[in-house]
Automatic annotation (TrEMBL):
Source lineage: Bacteria, Pseudomonadati, Pseudomonadota, Alphaproteobacteria, Hyphomicrobiales
Full protein name: Glyoxalase
Domain Glyoxalase/fosfomycin resistance/dioxygenase: 11-112
InterPro entries from the UniProt entry: Glyas_Bleomycin-R_OHBP_Dase, Glyas_Fos-R_dOase_dom
Pfam family membership, one: Glyoxalase
Length: 125
């Protein structure tokens, strides 16, 4: 895939370690080659899921992300919705807008919807 035209979210986080662990559970990771040397600042993290999904995490400006008032949201198109739902003890459902999905919040209460088009699901009519 050529990176030309790709759009990647840069998500501010209050706790980069907690956020990285959360997104690891959704299949996003950063390679060891992207980790800074010991003692170097680790304030920007580039994660990918190996399937074309990318997410960058950065330190939020102190006091910027307030619990219950986070305006950010992400939508992860993921064919294995059921497996991700089990990881987070959620129950996905078919929505009127044609998606099979569930919603969770990350450590900073960013809304994260995980879904796949209902007609594309295995066994869909």
């Amino acid at each position: 895939m050529s990176p030309s035209g790709a759009l990647i979210a840069i998500l501010p986080c209050n706790d980069l370690d907690a956020s990285e662990r959360f997104y690891n559970r959704l299949g996003f990771a950063r390679p060891d080659s992207e980790r800074p040397a010991p003692g170097e600042p680790d304030t920007y993290r580039m994660l990918s899921n190996g399937k074309g999904g990318y997410l960058h995490l950065t330190d939020a400006v102190e006091g910027w992300l307030t619990p219950g008032r986070n305006p950010f949201g992400l939508y992860l198109y993921l064919e294995s919705v059921d497996a991700a739902a089990r990881e987070f003890q959620q129950s996905p459902e078919d929505k009127p807008w044609g998606m099979y999905e569930f919603a969770i919040s990350d450590p900073d209460e960013t809304l994260v919807r995980v879904g796949w088009p209902t007609p594309l699901r295995a066994g869909a009519q």
